[in-house]
Design brief:
Elements: H1 2-20, E1 27-32, E2 35-39, E3 44-49, E4 56-57, E5 62-66, H2 69-87, H3 92-95, H4 97-119, H5 124-175, E6 177-179, E7 184-189, E8 196-197, E9 202-207, E10 211-219, H6 220-223, E11 231-239, E12 242-253, E13 258-259, E14 273-282, E15 292-296, E16 306-308
Antiparallel strand pairs: 1-10, 1-15, 2-9, 3-5, 3-8, 4-7, 5-6, 7-9, 10-14, 11-12, 11-15, 12-14, 12-16, 13-14
Helix pairs in contact: 2-5, 4-5
């Protein structure tokens, strides 16, 4: 009887141990954030650069300035050139006023000779000469108007071209002011103040560490139990059984399967094909990029993150 009791006790202990090994999660992965690398958009010396790794910056905040001297001087040059073009525009009415007056006088003479010829008081040759004079003056006026119109059109085009070039330079001037495209925390800094930077050179990397994502992988069997917008439990794993629980929301599910990454464990390790999912989590400052995490498809009963076993309940 004693050996039998010992065997039964061993079986009970084994079953208890097996029950204790049951996983409290359905998939694991790593936390990531939306990272943005900011590049230089102009060439020049970096006059100011107030970015440091770990700094929190806001969207639109100016963090640096590339030397703008040459760009500003080109703008001033083009403004002066535009003023020259403006001053060269012809005053058409004034320049053709004399010809118009001569034409009007010639038409009066033509009309007077027409009446005299009709009354037989003047030879028809005088009317022919008057008509010819009107035609000559009309052609002169048309030629003057055409020449002045072409000149005016050319100068207007040159002014418009100068305006476009000025706007291009002003855009270049704006791009010399380095601003943060999004709010977040500076992860890496690649240059220092005083360095000569070129267009396309990376300056710093920023990430929104408040809105984090847990990228995990689920099997096709698990896929039927998960959908966009679903609330799930997320655990940040600190090691040594130290975990922190958060409420997460399924933000993205891959539309195609892929082979199981070697560094990822799923609930069914025998599966060859898995689907990537991203769980959106509101970071309270404890989650770091690259930290391991776990996700349970069971929805969290509370919207507030809880702590276990480290820290205080939030």
């Amino acid at each position: 009887m004693k050996p039998t009791r010992s065997i039964l006790a061993g079986v009970v202990l084994l079953m208890t141990a097996c029950g204790g090994d049951e996983k409290a999660y359905d998939a694991t992965g790593t936390f990531e954030a939306t990272e943005t690398t900011v590049f230089a958009e102009q060439n020049g010396t970096l006059l100011t650069f107030i970015v440091n790794e770990g700094d929190s910056i806001s969207q639109g905040q100016e963090v640096g300035l590339i030397d703008t001297t040459q760009t500003w001087l080109k703008i001033q040059q083009l403004v002066a050139t535009k003023q020259v073009y403006q001053s060269q525009k012809p005053d058409m009415e004034r320049q053709v006023a004399a010809t118009r007056q001569q034409l009007a006088k010639a038409r009066q003479d033509e009309q007077r000779y027409r009446e005299l010829v009709a009354d037989g008081a003047a030879p028809s040759k005088m009317l022919d000469d008057a008509t010819s004079q009107v035609q000559v003056l009309q052609k002169q006026l048309d030629a003057q108007v055409s020449t002045l119109s072409t000149q005016l059109s050319t100068l207007n085009s040159q002014v418009s071209t100068a305006d476009v070039q000025i706007e291009q330079l002003r855009d270049m001037l704006r791009k010399c002011h380095i601003t943060a495209p999004t709010k977040g925390t500076v992860l890496e800094k690649y240059v220092e103040r005083g360095e000569l930077v070129a267009t396309g050179k990376p300056l710093f990397k920023v990430a929104d560490t408040q809105g984090m994502f847990l990228r995990a992988y689920v099997t096709s069997a698990q896929l039927q139990h998960i959908k966009i917008g679903q609330r799930v439990k997320v655990f940040a794993d600190y090691g040594d059984q130290q975990k922190r629980e958060y409420e997460g929301t399924v933000a993205w599910i891959s539309s195609r399967s892929e082979f199981t990454p070697k560094t990822i464990l799923t609930d069914d390790e025998r599966a060859d094909l898995v689907y990537a999912v991203k769980i959106a989590v509101r970071n309270d400052g404890y989650i770091k990029i690259g930290m391991y995490g776990e996700v349970s498809l069971t929805p969290s009963p509370s919207s507030s993150p809880s702590v276990s076993p480290i820290g205080e309940r939030k």
